[in-house]
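A.,

Following up on our hallway conversation. Structure tokens first:
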């Protein structure tokens, strides 16, 4: 076989040009505006979640504390049998929780106190039992049904310690 003679390809006329070169890959920092927006939204949602979680935990802790105090009052009554002290302590506990939603609850009497208690959706029998506590403090201790009162206070507190269950205050409009 004969060696084939390879001849170099003739160079094109004109200047010798290099091939097109690409610029270097862009650096990852600073990110594009869309990534900044995503980071801000993510940070805002994490902060909102932490705020909600802390608020929820605080409400649960308060609920456990108040219901634990109610249990301690009931146990104290079983131990000493003092109905007047139980009625007074239950009444004070109701007022303390109601004051969190209505600043005037500590001073209300009669129909205003009834309206404050009625802002929590409980049945009529429970509401009547709660209103009877107000008069029970000044009556002889013989007619006090402590079991029904503790049950009524517990039912009211379970709902009252959930802020969403409170009905809005009914305002009176004077036509003048």
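Then the amino acids I'd put at each of the 176 positions:
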């Amino acid at each position: 076989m004969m060696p084939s003679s390879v001849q170099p390809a003739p160079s094109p006329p004109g200047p010798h040009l290099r091939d097109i070169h690409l610029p270097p890959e862009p650096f990852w920092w600073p990110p594009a505006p869309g990534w900044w927006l995503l980071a801000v939204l993510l940070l805002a949602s994490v902060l909102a979640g932490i705020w909600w979680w802390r608020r929820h935990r605080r409400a649960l802790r308060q609920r456990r504390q108040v219901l634990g105090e109610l249990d301690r009052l009931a146990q104290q009554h079983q131990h000493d049998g003092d109905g007047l002290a139980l009625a007074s302590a239950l009444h004070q506990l109701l007022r303390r929780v109601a004051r969190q939603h209505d600043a005037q609850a500590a001073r209300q009497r009669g129909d205003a106190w009834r309206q404050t208690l009625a802002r929590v959706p409980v049945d009529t029998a429970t509401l009547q039992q709660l209103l009877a506590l107000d008069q029970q403090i000044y009556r002889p201790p013989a007619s006090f049904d402590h079991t029904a009162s503790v049950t009524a206070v517990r039912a009211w507190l379970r709902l009252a310690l959930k802020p969403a269950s409170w009905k809005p205050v009914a305002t009176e409009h004077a036509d003048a």
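Residues 52-164 form one domain. Curious whether your intuition agrees with the design.

B.
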